[in-house]
Design brief:
Order of helices and strands: H
Helix content: over 70%
Strand content: under 5%
Shape: rod-shaped
Structural class: mainly alpha
Number of helices: 1
Radius of gyration: 34 Å
Distance between the termini: 116 Å
């Protein structure tokens, strides 16, 4: 009887440990997928930031050029 009890307890312990391993493996897998998704988002946002900075620089340059053209035109009108 005691041998049977030891075998049953051993099987229960093995099943519990296997279930814990499966749970942790699945949890790690899904967390790594989430991390990869977030890393892709960060990369895309960094690229978008670069594009927006370039657009801002182009607009600043365009604005400076148009301001100087208006300044030149204003000075010609005043003369």
């Amino acid at each position: 009887m005691s041998l049977f009890l030891i075998i049953v307890i051993s099987i229960v312990i093995v099943v519990i440990l296997a279930a814990m391993k499966i749970y942790l493996s699945n949890h790690i897998y899904y967390e790594s997928r989430r991390v990869n998704y977030i890393e892709r988002e960060v990369s895309a946002l960094r690229e978008e930031k670069k594009m927006l900075k370039n657009q801002v620089q182009k607009l600043k340059f365009k604005n400076r050029i148009s301001d100087t053209i208006f300044d030149i035109n204003d000075s010609e009108v005043c003369e």
